[in-house]
Amino acid sequence: MLGQLPKGEDNPNVLVGLNDPDDAGVYRLDDRMAMVQTVDFFPPIVDDPYDFGAITATNAISDVYAMGGRPVTALNLTAFPEKELGSGILDKILKGGHDKAAEAGVAVIGGHSINDKEIKYGMAVTGLVEIEKMVTKGGGRPGDILYLTKPLGVGIIATAAKRDLAPEKALKKAIKSMSELNRGAAEAMVAAGVRGGTDVTGFGLLGHLWEMLVAGKVGAEISASAIPVFEEVWDLALAEIMPGRTKVNLDYLSEHIVFEGRVPPQTRHILCDPQTSGGLLIAVPEASREIFLREAEARGVKTVAEIGRLVKDKECRIRVTP
Question: Is the Cα torsion angle 232, 238, 243, 249 positive or negative in sign?
Answer without folding.
Answer: positive
